[in-house]
Amino acid sequence: MGKGEELTTTKYLIHAQINANGIVEKPDVVGAVFGQTEGLLSNDLDLRELQRTGRIGRIQVNIHSNGGRAKGDIIIPSSLDRVETAILAASLETINRVGPCEAEIQTLKVEDVRAVKREQVVNRAKEIYKNMVESVGPASMKMIEEVREAMRIHEISEYGDDRLPAGPSIHTSDAIIVVEGRSDVLNLLKYGIKNTVAVEGVSVPQSIGELSKKRTTTAFVDGDRGGELILKELLQIGDVDYITRAPQGKEVEDLEKDEVLVALRDKVPTPQFLANHNILSESDNNGHKKHDKHHHKKHQKYKKEPEIEDDEISLMKDMLKEFEGTGCGAILDKALNITKEVSIEDIYEEIKNIEEDADTVIFDGIISQRLVDVASQKNIKKLVAFKSNIVKKPHNLKIITID
Fold this sequence. Notes:
Blueprint: H1 3-9, E1 12-20, H2 26-37, H3 47-52, E2 60-66, E3 69-78, H4 82-91, E4 97-98, E5 101-112, H5 113-135, H6 138-155, E6 157-159, E7 164-166, E8 175-179, H7 182-190, E9 196-198, H8 206-214, E10 216-221, H9 225-237, E11 242-245, H10 257-265, E12 268-269, H11 270-276, H12 282-287, H13 289-297, H14 300-303, H15 310-323, E13 328-332, E14 338-343, H16 347-352, E15 360-363, E16 366-368, H17 369-377, E17 382-385, E18 387-389, E19 398-401
Parallel strand pairs: 8-9, 8-10, 10-11, 15-17, 16-18, 17-19
Antiparallel strand pairs: 1-3, 1-5, 2-3, 4-5, 6-7, 11-12, 13-14, 13-15
């Protein structure tokens, strides 16, 4: 019987230890095992017959001598059932001589080969899975983002008779962001913000004015003189609810993701903005009184501003989709930059051990009450996942799910 055959049929390995009061060799041990168990058990369990029919494998003996005594290990592969294997293992302990010497054999254990194989399978599967998760690391994420960026250029849409550059959500979103030009729309699309429309020039089209009266409108303009001029024009013909600007001297099309998110987060209601900035001249202010009145009617739109705006939620849901099926997630800072990637199995411990200024946790899974409680303790602001299964939501935590 070949070794490969043994491996495929072996169910158990009998491990025994031998001590002899003289020097014995391997053939002596094998001879004693066969000779002294012969006739002890029924013919069904005769070792020679079992080996002939392949129900036990080749007996392995590893023996060494020291100081006139011999000590060693015996391993017998068995494809018998559990009870028969146990009887065979016990029979080894009846052997009291090996060759010319007195000897003692003790059965140490019977090992279930299938259990060992199962453990090997599990360990190897964990290893393979870990490598799969690691393969969606920062470098892969960067590649994914590059492809997504290229796709977003194709996502650009148009609005109205003027065919103004716009994000694909401009026709359906309750909230819109008005920017200056096509490049601004593309830059915001790059960060997953799709509810934008550009005025394309200092003269604001009438269609934008009309649209702004139907939707909650945020003006997001450059931090220069040109931004002021567009804002002034927009306030005259439209109904702007919120205003925000790029940092002083910067243009919206050049902003990084964190700068865009900070600007949108820090937007202020129009009356408050006008009170703090000298955008309109005195005559413009007089002409704007009607606009303020209209805002008073519409004040409920910004009286209770949502904790997180539609565009930011949209961006986080996009980021979540990148983790779909990976079994991992990420911890993000306030600007939604990934500070650490984590696997789902470790996510509770990772949140529990957070020390840095973390703001958001995004992961490919279900938000549990246990996660909510620890995230709240760690002052995490947002948990983002595919589903949630919670009883109580702390007031300081926002839960965002796809469903």
